[in-house]
Amino acid sequence: MWVEKNNKLTKSFRFSDFQEAFAFMMRVAFLAEKHNHHPNWSNVYNTLDIELTTHDKGNTVTEKDRNLAKAIDEI
């Protein structure tokens, strides 16, 4: 579940290992390019933390963030 806090949508994803986490990150990267909206993220071994915020709208959560979050969940 995505959580909206401090003007960001955030979600953590856990995978069985680093390779699975990295494969997911690659899919999200292509999706982000398609949406022309790029996440802030952090990966440590099998955990990926994603933050979405719209920088050109004053670092607030916008429809762009919600649309990308929905698309990420559909992967």
Shape: globular
Helix fraction, binned, reads: 25-40%
Number of strands: 4
Full CATH superfamily name: Transcriptional coactivator/pterin dehydratase
Strand content: 25-35%
Low-confidence stretches at least 5 residues in length (pLDDT < 50)?
none
Report on the structure:
- With 75 residues, the chain is α+β, with helices and mostly antiparallel strands.
- It has a single domain, classed as 2-Layer Sandwich (Gyrase A, domain 2), CATH 3.30.1360.
- Helix content is 39%, strand content 28%.
- The chain contains 2 helices and 4 strands, in the order ββαββα.
- Strands 1-2-4-3 form a 4-stranded antiparallel sheet, with helices on one face.
- α1 (18-35) crosses α2 (63-73).
- The chain starts with a strand and ends with a helix.
Strands, helices and their partners?
Layout: E1 3-5, E2 8-14, H1 18-35, E3 40-44, E4 47-52, H2 63-73
Antiparallel strand pairs: 1-2, 2-4, 3-4
Which terms summarize this structure?
75 residues; 2 helices; 4-alpha-hydroxytetrahydrobiopterin dehydratase activity; alpha+beta; globular; four-stranded antiparallel β-sheet
Summarize the structure.
The chain has 75 residues and is α+β, with helices and mostly antiparallel strands. It contains 2 helices and 4 strands. The chain has helices at 18-35, 63-73; strands at 3-5, 8-14, 40-44, 47-52.
